[in-house]
Inverse folding.
């Protein structure tokens, strides 16, 4: 990434039902190469489940 390039930061926190954090994941990526999309926006049928290969074939490399 270049010095002044915009960065997309995705942070996910998994918590125990009692509220204590179990895991925190943070992904940093250059904005000009990635975008965020929700499953319901990506498929005509919101109940469809894609395989990892189908996702890659459609330009989706990271699923969180």
């Amino acid at each position: 990434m270049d010095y002044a390039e915009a960065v997309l930061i995705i942070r996910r926190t998994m918590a125990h039902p009692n509220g204590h954090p179990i895991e925190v994941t943070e992904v940093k990526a250059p904005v000009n190469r990635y975008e965020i999309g929700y499953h319901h926006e990506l498929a005509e049928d919101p109940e469809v489940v894609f395989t990892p290969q189908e996702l890659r074939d459609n330009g989706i490399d990271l699923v969180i």
